[in-house]
Amino acid sequence: MSTIxxxxxxxxxxxxxxxxxxxxxxISREEISExxxxxxxxxxxxxxxxxxxxVIQDEETKKELRGIANNQExxxxxxxxxxxxGDKEMYKNVEKVYNSAHAAGLIxxxxxxxxIENTNKLYPAAPAEVRTNIANFDAGLVSMQxxxxxxxRGYDTVPMGGFDKQKFAERFDISERYFPAVLIxxxxxxxxxxxxxxxPLEEIVTFI
Length: 208
Prior knowledge:
The chain is α+β, with helices and mostly antiparallel strands. Helix content is 45%, strand content 14%. It is built from 8 helices and 4 strands. A 4-stranded antiparallel beta sheet has the order 1-2-4-3, with helices on both faces. Keywords: Oxidoreductase. InterPro entries: Nitroreductase, Nitroreductase-like.
């Protein structure tokens, strides 16, 4: 096992959901941006990257958000809460995505045009529910990547689906194109995380 693999294994094993945070500990906007820049390297369907983020650090806004998030303490005490939004109209990113890939020399013009054409045929015709499911799945990928990146830097996180998504969308003026997928508290633990166990692998895997 390489050193990189050992380090990743340690991060995975040591990452636990933390709900008690040191409210005096602050993470800079610059470092949060660095973590997000690494997180958005996560894969996505057709590389359409159907996500965006709201980073909430203002103390009064966090207090207000706590009320929207079922009074969960970590919303107020963590250094930041990162709202991961899913994009139901991710196909509107297609020209930006593939023009960028072409400009970087990663694909030729014929491939670029084909990908744009295929995306514009497939995604707008798909039911909104299908596109929402795709965006939700990809939001999960970028969220997990963000939490592992944070742990590798010595920070703690907890993902939260238990909040009033309609009230959140209204409070933060989110357009119909986007939906709040998950909130992630980010900060420094003030108490050990609760440990958990897993169902044994042999009960949930089939090798064929």
